[in-house]
Amino acid sequence: MKIMIPKIIFRYSPIYDELWGEKRGKKIKDYLSSKKILNYIKKVEKLWRKDEKKVLTELSKIIKLKWKEKQIYCYVVERCIPFSDPLTLPVYEKYPDYFIDVLIHELIHQLIFTQNEEETRKAWNYIWRKYKRETKKTKTHIPLHAIHTHIYLKFYGEERLKRNIKLLSHLKDFKKSWKIVRKEGYQKIIKEFVKRI
Questions:
Q1: Which of 45, 84, 126, 174 is 20 to 30 A from residue 10's alpha carbon, by CA?
Q2: Whether residue 49 has pLDDT greater than 80
């Protein structure tokens, strides 16, 4: 049976982008132009399309969960903290391929929570019990970082994985969840999570 794989649709909304700018107290003249953001979207979309099907298929396969949406809209704004629903990512000018890493991170959130909340309830209860001393953010990211490690090693290599860990090392909860994944082993964490789905 063929797995249904969603298509990621990249969107730019000047209104949405301006809202994020207002939250940061920016003046209009300080914004990246719509044209620059649209050009950035073209660049990252080209990178993403090369791997979209294989990455989304692999995620569904290793976690044994189905994608429930045929299309997922990804809003790109100049600056924000990325989040999974509605899928919203900022511009990463220095590392366009890092945009892909963050996109995969947020799509894992969608697959193991937003799109399959009922199916993963027992798995999350297990995570909450096993890591009860950890913060909510750390607990949430333990299975996510284990799954993302699998994707990195299968498609992008260890150096890119190391770069991601380094770029996020200033975030205490992320640093802790990566440490747990390295200590316990990403395969074991995935196995324990999946067997409760």
A1: 174
A2: yes
